[in-house]
Each structure stands twice: as structure tokens, then as C-alpha cells.
Amino acid sequence: MKRRVLIVSPPESYRIQPYVRAALTLDLEINLASQGEWAISSPVSAGIDVPLQDHRSALTTLVSLFEKRHYDAVIGTDDSTLELAAKLAEKTGLQQNLPTAVRLARRKDLSRLCLQQAGIQVPAFSIEEVSPQQLLDKPYFGFPCVIKPLALSGSRGVIRADTIEGLNQGVQRSLKIISEEADLYEKTHLLLEQYIPGREFAIEGMLTDGWLDVLAIFDKPDPMEGPYFEETYYISPARVSLDEKNILVEAVQNACRAFGLVTGPVHAECRLNKQGAWLIELAARTIGGLCSRLLSFGTGFSLEQLVLANAIGQELPLGLKGG
């Protein structure tokens, strides 16, 4: 009997197809839960229509489904579905990160507070309620500062400000970007934090029982100095010394422990300077964009194959502990 995995994903996600392909190679049955059954059904995967923004309603539908069919794992593909997948796993007794851990990693304001309370190095920051009519004062930590939406990925709405005029212009620009967010708090608050100079890296890893295996470390060769922080291209393996690599990995591992993340994929971004490693952000999902298509680990397994195997407790022959 085939093992069965439920993928919870927004219908427009580019991650769906790689997961479906990976499931086929591992001889897994895969079902897709998303908004609009027509958007995700295919000859190789059944679609379940659920309202992704209404977790209570979605959970009612999916828990009922689990009572009729056995599932070995549930995976959220994107930031917008990670919490729902974690809540479903918690209700059905499947191995997953706790919803609180996923939320701490997803929300930039909560992650900063959590890391600060855990004694982990973070930039000075403040959480500001904002509106189109409101002007902000100079932050207590001064300029330059960085404006960040609380829950967007891919550097959307992230803007550096060097003056009070630039700050308020940047806030209004970010407000327009977050205006369509479903969560009222997330569309009316922004994170302001101290700008941290240094080289920037992306770390891709996999957690098993709380321990992080590093799959790749990417160098971001473009100077990420703002005012905008568009993702351009990554280089792997990164140009780092062994000591620098260990500092980066330790920072990501410590952040995972602080959040309570124990299993599954981790994508983190860090800056490195004379003060050490600074965690910019961390997400309990795979890397964004098309980067995952370029990665092949150990004997040639894709990133999505590794995630699926990790979720069902299947070991794949990996020989890689760093990028």
C-alpha cells in the first residue's frame, strides 16, 4: 500500500509541481489541499477545496478527510499555508512543527521578540502601528533603518531609510504593498529595525529531531545595501571559511531552538560581520524562486524529495552536511 501525503498549498504556488514530481519518484500518493479544487487537481493527485484563510473551516474539512483516509504526513509548501498544515498535523497526531513554532518563524515581529528573549543577537527594533495619515518619528536606534512588513517573503516591502523623510516615504510604500493582507494586524503594523552591514548568505537545511543538517549555503554576491533588497542571484558553494560557516550554522540552529522548530525544511538568511552572524529571517519551508531546482544532494535527490522523505521518516542516502 502506498504511503500518502497531504500537501497544503496556495493554488498559484510554483512549489506544487516539484512536490508532485518528487512524490512520484518516491512512489508516494499525494493529495493537494488548496483554494479551488479545479486549480490543483491532476491525473496523479487528488484536489481538496478548502478556504485557506479560514483555518477553522479548513480544519473541519481536512480532519474529516483524515478520519476517512490514512495519511502519513502533511506538508505546507508556502508561508501562507505553513500554520494551517501545522495545526492539521497537531489535530491528527502527525509529526510536524507546532503551530506556535511556525508562527514565530513566519512573523518577523514575533521572531525578533523571541530571539531577543532567548539572548540571541538581533538588531535593535521597534514595532510600529502605521496608517496612510500617520508620520513616524526617528527610531530610537537612529538611521539607517530598515522597514519590513511583518509576514511577507522575498524582500517585498523591505526598504532602507537614511532620513526621516525617507522613512515616511518608505512606510507609505510598504503600506500599499501590505494593504491586501488578510490579517488586520499584519496590514496595519510594520517592523523597523537597525540596518546591519555585512555580507549576506542564505542557508538551506533540514531539521530532524531538532538537529539541523545543512544542505547548502548560498552567497549573495550583490551588495545588499538598499534602499530596496530585490533577490537577484545566489552562488553556491558560498565563499566562506570553515569558521564563518560554523558561525552561520550555529546562528540558524540556535534560532530554530528558540522558535521550537524540530522537523522539516528550513530556509534562513543571515548577515555576517565583525560582530558575528545576524539572523535576518528564517522560514520553515524550502527556498523560494527557482533555486531548489538547481540543488541535488547526495545521490541526486531533489530538495522536495528530501522534504517528503523527512516527513514520512524515510532515510535517504545523504553525504552532505554543508554547502
Radius of gyration: 20 Å
Global shape:
globular
What is the string of helix and strand elements? EHEEHEHHHEEEHHEEEHEEH
- Taken as a percent bin, the fraction of beta residues is 15-25%
Tell me the CATH architecture of the largest domain: 2-Layer Sandwich
- Cα(first) to Cα(last) distance is 36 Å
The mean pLDDT is 91
**How are the strands of the biggest sheet laid out side by side?**
3-2-1-4
* Overall domain count: 3
> CATH topology of the largest domain, what is it called?
D-amino Acid Aminotransferase, Chain A, domain 1
Low-confidence stretches: 319-323
Reading off the top of the CATH hierarchy, the class of the largest domain is best stated as Alpha Beta
Largest sheet: 4 strands, parallel
Can you walk through the features of this model?
The protein is an alpha/beta fold and 323 residues long. It has three domains: 92 residues, Rossmann fold (3-Layer(aba) Sandwich), CATH 3.40.50; 71 residues, Dna Ligase, domain 1 (2-Layer Sandwich); 116 residues, 2-Layer Sandwich (D-amino Acid Aminotransferase, Chain A, domain 1). Helices cover 32% and strands 24% of the residues. α2 crosses α3, α3 runs antiparallel to α4 and α4 packs across α5. It is globular, with a radius of gyration of 20 Å. The relative contact order is 0.14.
